Amino acid sequence: MAQNTLTTEPSMAAFQRGLPADLINLHSSHPAPLSAQQLAHITRLDFAAISHALSQDYAPVIGGEELRRAIVTAHYEVIDHDDILTTCGAQEALFITMQALLQQGDHVVCLTPIFEPLYQQAKMAGAQVETVPLLADSQWTIDWPALRQAVTDSTRLVIINFPHNPIGCHISDKELTDLVNLCHQHDCWLLSDEVFRGLEHQTKTRLPAAVDCYDKAISIAVMSKAYGMPALRLGWIACRQQQMRDRIITVKRHLSICGSRLDETVAQQLLPHSAKIFNHHRQQLSKNRRQLADSLQYLPHLQVHLPAAGATCFVRLQANQKAAAVTGDDFARQLARQQGLLVLPNSCFITDTPGFRLSIADAAMADHYPQLMIDP
Ligand SMILES: Cc1ncc(COP(=O)(O)O)c(C=O)c1O
Description:
Layout: H1 11-16, E1 24-25, H2 36-43, H3 47-52, H4 65-75, E2 84-87, H5 89-101, E3 107-112, H6 116-124, E4 128-133, H7 144-150, E5 155-160, H8 173-185, E6 189-193, H9 210-213, E7 217-222, E8 235-239, H10 242-255, H11 261-270, H12 274-296, E9 302-304, E10 312-317, H13 328-339, E11 341-342, E12 344-345, E13 355-359, H14 363-366
Parallel strand pairs: 1-11, 3-4, 3-5, 5-6, 6-7
Antiparallel strand pairs: 2-8, 7-8, 9-10, 10-13, 12-13
Helix pairs in contact: 4-11, 5-6, 5-10
The protein binds pyridoxal-5'-phosphate.
């Protein structure tokens, strides 16, 4: 396991080092970005007018008030704009939150597989991180007995990420309530990474934000994932407790004086169109998901629990097939060398279940699904 310092290379970067640079990316977790034309069509906005009206000054460290109001209107029911702090993407939001929330030796519980920074950044903040694996053979559901055993009165923080990266699974309303109750019972914080909220393949499965359900929950979201706009470096932290927000702002001040006013201004214009943008992505993701399902019948060495939300799923290598002898890392490396395709192996997601993250983000990716095989 990697050491917990800022100079430890993230597994995703380490895995890709040494691989050819021109591989076809089949692992992206954000939906295919809209073209400028599509965006103008969906929103009817005149983007040229935005840059003309732009102030060239620093923005407020917590994000402009109008932007934070637009975020709340688009995403939350209970909290208000004073509960929001903007960041440079969700990665920075996670880093700031972990540093503000955690101290050396704090007990943290997270579910695996997991988007690695959610685990690694808690460790970098000095925490002891206990992992509770999702049940791979039961459609990646939560192992409730194991989770209830792991979370105790000494636990400082529980970390969740639903809709889930890399699995693409989701939880029910009842499970969210049970998670909140578990944290409440042990008086611990709940960090909910909600960057894929809005990309549920069926809208009725969209859950309330954790921060709206529990006063010790922190919700994190971003323009990169549900909106498919990683070019806008805008994420945010939603937190109801003033004292914790003050700590969060203090950490942020060490990283950046403020966010990009240009990104914030564009995001502010786009947020009122959230539903239409999510809808566009949802339709494309559902199409690609069907194409993946069709391809799978010709790929007996692979097993996929089809995603219910988000733009990725986790492909398991079947134990009874030729590919059984290889690890996720070997498979992904051979796939890169033999087929020119890039997927990320299980080692990037803190799980021993052999397999890899596969994207359903883009129609062009789906054409390559039949090539997901190697000659071991
Ligand atoms: C679950 C999750 N959280 C946070 C992030 C970071 O988002 P950003 O790239 O916008 O900083 C990602 C990026 O892949 C992610 O998948």
